[in-house]
Structures are given as C-alpha cells and as structure tokens.
What we know:
The protein is mainly alpha-helical. The protein has six helices and no strands. The protein starts with 19 loop residues before the first helix and ends in a 6-residue tail after the last helix.
Amino acid sequence: MKKAGKNEHHLWEKRDSAGSGQKALNLLRIVIADTQMTKWMLSKGQVATMGTYGTFLLAFDMENRVDEAGSLWNLVLHTHNRSILKRLFSRMISLFDHHSMPNKIIETWRSCVKLDENTVRKVVRAFQELGQEDK
C-alpha cells in the first residue's frame, strides 16, 4: 500500500496558472462521468427526486440538449403530476425561454401552479412574441 506523500495532486490546488485548463478539463470529465452514472441510476428507478430532475434540466439546458430536457420533463409530468415543485416549472420555462420557444413556455405555464415574478415575466414575453398580448 502506497502512502500519500508531499507530491499528492489535488484537483483545485493552485500552484501555477499554466495547468488551469487541465484542471477544468479534469473537472469536466468528473462531472460527465457523474452525470452518466446518475442517468443510469435514474433509469433504474433510483435517485428520482425533484432535486435530481432540476439538476438534469439545468444540465440539459446548459448543453443545449432541449429534446432530452423535454423528454425528462414529460416523464416528470406523467409520474409526479400532482406534486411537482414550482421551481421545476420555473426551470423548464427558463429553459424554453433560453432556447426561444414561446409556445413551449405557454404550454408549460398552463400546467403549473402559481409562479414567481421572474418566471411570470418570461411567460408574458412569450405571449408578446406570439402576438397574443390579450391572453
């Protein structure tokens, strides 16, 4: 068994800025591996929590994977139709807003409960973009 010595490498230990790109790449690899593992666990019925769903929706948004976000959102709607957090509705509306999808914003808004002011502004803007200010 090998003991950790002074030369042990820590991901965020900052000794020089030259390796910062490599540190970011290492972190990205860790996050992708973790995301893949979580997706697998989710497919097996594990870690199916609102927090996990929210994290996946955010990750899909950041990676421009709108179709996968939509599929997950449909799963959430059909599985937890009476107990979805307002935060998840806001997350989906933000995702659709980020990707300029006003029809999807309104569709999501029609399914949800009372939203925060920032999310309501996104819904109003979606109606305006569609020329439906009267609604």
